[in-house]
Backbone:
């Protein structure tokens, strides 16, 4: 859906981020879910210093933050699940299919994101520290183990279960950084590329990038 | 609820773990949710080498795994949410309260568990590596920042929102290791102790420990 300034759903995102974060900030995941579900939304862009009140909305001072009437949500997983509840495009209606999709949603954000972010912190955020190479090897090994298991699970399947769900959306989003994919088996790389090729993802990425100013406010 | 060998719900747990993991393995979180919800369950205990087939149930070879009729779930967050859907003791029925509880459930398993597990991996799992002290300081700093924000959010409140929910259950479970709490403000420590004092938690911990054999199979 095109963004719509009159939409009931408001997504808070950053108005500027450094180059390495463009295309990776987590509002993108929520935009993607909204595009898959066919729901229009407006954005509120944060620029400059975070106001103190913002921490009463988003306790970590991060994005995305989601508002829809009286409902205020943070955490991309909770927001994606809320959107998925509205749309069979993201969440099967039967109890078993629904449960499997939600299991993969949590798997992406916990079992997979813990080693992904550990590897990113050790490798990129502290690249200049003398301990970085050793820690990077250890977290890389942890990540490689999880990716190998994911590759075994996938085999030559298109998606994690018998159709695309919010679980695939979050797993693809978690794995699409260069640092995550350098450790991935070929079938996992192909899976991530398949997710990124979805029209809804392309629209979400374009909107995410269009909202980012070239210069800090 | 007492465990019941005829229960419809089956939780898979380990039959033995090393001393440092006793009281920390994630089947405890699911047992706690079941106790809060008043649902009885039986356990299947894994001993010795993990059979290859188990990875088709739990893709990472970890516990817990949950079976209930045709429904098979992995990831403690997905299982806790499934249980919470059955019981107002864990999940408010109104949309706003429900959304807030689920936001905190994801917050525990993503925004908080990423630095907790990063800190545990750097500090404990690789204690003998020369890079461990430096990495431990960096992940400790990351964790301390999140814990400070959590302390600001809590203030002198009893729970994260206006009542105990599955979000508190998971946040308390995520933070109750010594390595997490050594970095926590006093009000966060008191919050975790309040969660651990709940009768349902004590029953779940006793059942978790009772299922652990003193020696590896």
Residues:
């Amino acid at each position: 859906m095109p963004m719509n300034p009159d939409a009931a759903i408001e997504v808070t995102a950053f108005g500027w981020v450094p180059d390495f974060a463009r295309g990776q900030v987590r509002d993108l995941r929520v935009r993607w879910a909204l595009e898959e579900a066919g729901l229009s939304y407006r954005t509120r862009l944060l620029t400059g210093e975070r106001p103190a009140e913002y921490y009463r909305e988003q306790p970590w001072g991060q994005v995305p933050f989601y508002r829809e009437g009286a409902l205020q949500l943070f955490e991309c997983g909770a927001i994606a699940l809320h959107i998925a509840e509205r749309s069979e495009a993201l969440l099967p209606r039967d109890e078993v299919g629904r449960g499997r999709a939600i299991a993969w949603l949590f798997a992406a954000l916990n079992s997979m994101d813990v080693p992904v972010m550990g590897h990113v912190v050790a490798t990129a955020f502290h690249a200049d520290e003398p301990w970085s190479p050793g820690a990077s090897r250890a977290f890389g090994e942890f990540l490689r183990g999880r990716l190998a298991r994911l590759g075994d699970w996938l085999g030559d399947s298109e998606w994690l279960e018998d159709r695309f769900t919010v679980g695939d959306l979050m797993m693809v989003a978690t794995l699409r950084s260069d640092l995550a994919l350098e450790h991935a088996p070929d079938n996992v790389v192909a899976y991530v590329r398949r997710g990124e090729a979805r029209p809804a993802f392309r629209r979400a990425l374009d909107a995410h990038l269009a909202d980012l100013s070239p210069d800090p406010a």
Remarks:
- Chain B has a mean pLDDT of 96.
- Chain B has two domains: 9-89+200-209, 95-198.
- The beta strands of chain B are 9-14, 42-46, 65-68, 71-74.
- The CA atoms of residues 92 and 179 of chain B lie 32 Å apart.
